[in-house]
Amino acid sequence: HREPLGAGQLERALCQANDVDAQMEQLVGLLELSEGERRLRHLLVALFQEVFSEFFPGCSVLPFGSSVNGFDAHGCDLDLLLDLEPTKSLQSSARGSPGAEESILSDIDLASASPPELLELVAAVLRRCVPGVRRVHAVPTARRPVVKFSHKQSGLAGDISVDNRLALHNTRFLRLCGEADERVRPLGYAVRLWAKQQGLAGNPAGGGPLLTNYALTLLVLFFLQTRSPPVLPAVAQLRELAGDEDRVVVAGWDCSFPRDAALLEPSANSESPSSLLAEFFRVFGDFDFSGQVLSLREGRALPLPEAGELFKQGSLNLQDPFELSHNVAANVTEKTAARLGHCCRAAAKYCRSLQYRCKSTKGRGWGLARLFQPGAVEPGAGAASFLISIPVPAPWCPEEPGGGFKEICAGIAFVLRDVLRCSCTPGKPPKQLGAPRAGQSLPQDPVGGKEPPGDTAGVEEEPLQPPTASKRPQPDGTDGAATPRAKRPRVNGPEQEEEEDEEEEEVVASWSCTVWHHVWTGRRRLRRQLLHGASPEEPEEGGDSLELEQKVSEAIVQHEGADRPPEPLLRFEASARLAGGGRREPRVLLRLTPSPAPGPLFRDFFHFLQAFLPPALRRRLGWGPGAAP
Ligand code: ATP
Ligand code: MG
Fold first, then answer.
1. Calpha distance 295→297 (Å, rounded)
2. Counting atoms of ligand 1 from 1, which one is nearest the CA of 216?
């Protein structure tokens, strides 16, 4: 089983290609499953089939989703449908016959069992009878209830659903589209990876505000249907091409379309994959997602009422190609939809620049490599970052760079490391990524000269990775790499928590941080338990004795298993600087820049830290509650 490619590996490989079209083709090759990985999945399906057949005679185990839809990637999950319809028929005809009570069939009547009962049964079979299967649990509340599992030897995670025949057909539809035109898969892979890096798509179990990969792929297919001339036909046209053997209705929805892509007319569209990608961003960067319905059935956007009364309207209205009453993006929040538009606009702008179109002669990221770096294509901006503002009592503000600030930095590091049990190593100060202000020149590139001048569309020349850690010990024994007069990256996008106005910053210290345990969850309860009800007052987050807070973290670490998990939960760069002064209240701004792009887990951690850190720091530095608001 191959691990997903590291970002660096992928980037290096892409940079070798000669143009963006070649990068797109290469991307598919780099990400798609190898023959060996496919065989392994096949074997696993056969294993499940064998075991489930023992319990549910006649059943079939059928893969769907990314393992078989043509948009597979190393390590993608294994979606399985356990089709129990044949077993139900067998059961009803065998009822009363001798021997039936010997089997599990007599324990539960499949036809009348409730979905949660059925799921529990499937979970029990998985747990007890399939070798190597771990972490089995039923998720009965999802729109399509599933049993989740992972498989130890292969490292694969998967879902089994028992009632989702539509998934087989929409999977086949995606596959057909991928086979119909050779530009479809490269575009699908590029958009999927881009959206993942931007934190726009993921697979939220049982909801979440992000697009699922399925929804994202439909967005790509819709785009290709709406080119002029179209790259892909509308689903209604495909239906016309379906032969008798292709006619099928599932749960009342017509899922008829040809199985064989060879039956489709080649597209008259001659756009290159790289220009289609740029156009994808341009089109959706300026799209009214909430005021119309994207219909793959019709291959065009429809007025909202045409989707019907049952269609759940939302911030993004994307109609399932078969289950027409279903909005596949119903879970997408207004914020995510707005961010999708924003990220598309930034990407479209990047696609107009030389850095997209021309291979770098200086060994820098270009084309797709740069597009996939989180936050990199935002003109004049660094990666998405989050700010925590900590008011500082005036006497603590250093006249000289590094004065009381060093102690504040040591305090921040203490809270992160010793109180919250994060790893935290001093790092280099962040480079300036912001566009130069009037009268300023671009910062000198320490490595080499600049790319040839041209239409750079405002994209900066700086290295785009967030600053990496250097484990440089500090000669003065302070806890951060405090450096006078370093510049900060700008905050980008609407996601950010606080947009600071332009200010001269005094000092910057930075750390590379890694979070290994969910130290932000359940603290209140643990705190109460540790206090044994000694304090009737609700202790303030982080404001109680730091010793107690340390114990709370320790309890969480112990509870999760004292050993570090193989992979950390979160990684981020943190940088601190002093702001304010003059008329403005002095404060330390702590900027967290997560990598990869922030997901829900990071946001939870951030919101916790935002409340926890200021009072904890007050306590550590002895400012007292009155010292700062
Ligand atoms: P991944 O690599 O994320 O697993 P995938 O190609 O398997 O990608 P998923 O989003 O997991 O894509 O979708 C798998 C299947 O689940 C789809 O074929 C579809 O049947 C179903 N599905 C996923 N998201 C939705 C949705 N929003 N609405 C309806 N069905 C969905
Ligand atoms: Mg999947």
1. 5
2. 10
- Distance between CA atoms of residues 389 and 407, nearest Å: 17
Q: What is the token pair recorded at 134?
A: 């771990």
Given a cut of 70, the residues of the chain with pLDDT beneath it are 1-7, 96-107, 203-207, 374-384, 395-403, 428-507, 533-544, 581-584, 624-629
SS3 for 271-299, per residue? CCHHHHHHHHHHHHHCCCCCCEEEECCCC
Question: What span, in angstroms and rounded, lies between the C-alpha atoms of 613 and 589?
Answer: 12
Q: Encode 16-42: b = buried (16+ Cβ within 10 Å), e = exposed.
A: ebeebbbbbbbbbebbbbeeebeebbe
Cβ burial 72-83 (10 Å sphere, 16+ → b, else e): bbebbbbbbbbb
Give 77 Cα–ligand 2 centroid separation in angstroms: 5
Nearest-CA residue for atom 14 of ligand 1: 65
Q: Please say whether the beta carbons of 20 and 357 come within 8 A.
A: yes
| Cβ within 8 Å of residue 97, ≥6 positions away | none
Tell me the pLDDT tens digit for each residue of 462-515: 222 333 333 333 444 445 555 444 344 444 333 343 333 334 445 578 899 999
Q: Which numbered ligand comes closest to the C-alpha of 81? A: 1
The residues, ordered by sequence, that sit 6+ positions from 132 with a Cβ below 8 Å of its Cβ are 151, 152, 153, 154
**If you write DSSP's letter for every residue of 206-267 in order, what string do you get?**
T--SSBPHHHHHHHHHHHHHTSSS-SS--HHHHHHH--GGG--EETTEE----S-GGGSPPP
**Burial of residue 253 (number of CB atoms within 10 Å: 0-12, 13-18, 19+):** middle
Tokens of 130: 């399939």
Q: Which domains does the chain have, with CATH numbers?
A: 35-163 (3.30.460.10), 170-357 (1.10.1410.10), 383-435+466-516+567-621 (no CATH)
DSSP 160-188: EESS-HHHHHHHHHHHHHHHH-TTHHHHH
Q: How far is the CA of 338 from the centre of ligand 2 (A)?
A: 25
41 CA to middle of ligand 2, Å? 13
Q: Is the dihedral of CA 402, 405, 407, 413 positive or negative?
A: negative
Tokens representing 243 are: 């032969």
Identify the nearest ligand to the CA of 220 by its number.
1
Ligand 1 pocket test, pick from 62, 67, 71, 79 with the greatest ligand atom count within 8 Å of Cβ, gives: 79
Q: 312: which 2 tokens?
A: 């759940």
Rounded to the nearest 10 degrees, how much is the dihedral formed by the CA atoms of 466, 471, 477, 482? -20
Q: 72, 160, 213, 221: which to mutate for ligand 1, most atoms within 8 A of CB?
A: 213
Q: Counting beta carbons within 10 angstroms of the beta carbon of residue 203, is it exposed (0 to 12), middle (13 to 18) or buried (19 or more)?
A: middle
User: Per residue in 349-395, pLDDT tens?
Assistant: 999 999 999 998 887 889 999 998 765 565 434 456 788 888 887 76
Cα–chain-centroid distance for residue 15?
24
Residues with CB under 6 A from ligand 1: 64-66, 69, 71, 76-77, 79, 167, 170-171, 203, 212-215, 328
